[in-house]
Write a structure and sequence with these properties.
Shape: elongated
Helix content: over 70%
Strand content: under 5%
Order of helices and strands: HHHHHH
Largest sheet: none
Radius of gyration: 23 Å
Number of helices: 6
Distance between the termini: 77 Å
Amino acid sequence: MRTFALILALASAGPASALAAEPADLPALERAWHSCVRDAYDRQPEHDSKPGRERNALDECKPHEDAYVAALMAARPNADLPLNGWARTWASYVSFVVDPVKAWIEALRR
């Protein structure tokens, strides 16, 4: 019952309150989101297209998804983010592209 109350509170208040909740029961939030999507999909009219029914179900359960994703992100430590690795990869790619172009432009100027 306590988990259900937490899920309702997180879903109704949005992602910001999910970040403030410590610690979040991630499996329960995920189950609630998946259950919501299944139930919402089952309530969709049969004459609608399958992609339309899927979109409608996902739209209906957006608060559950937001709460789950926010709690998932809050539970993840910042040290796990590969920002330095991505920055180095991006810088090497940029230099790989820019350096030859720069050299070619300089050769045209001469």
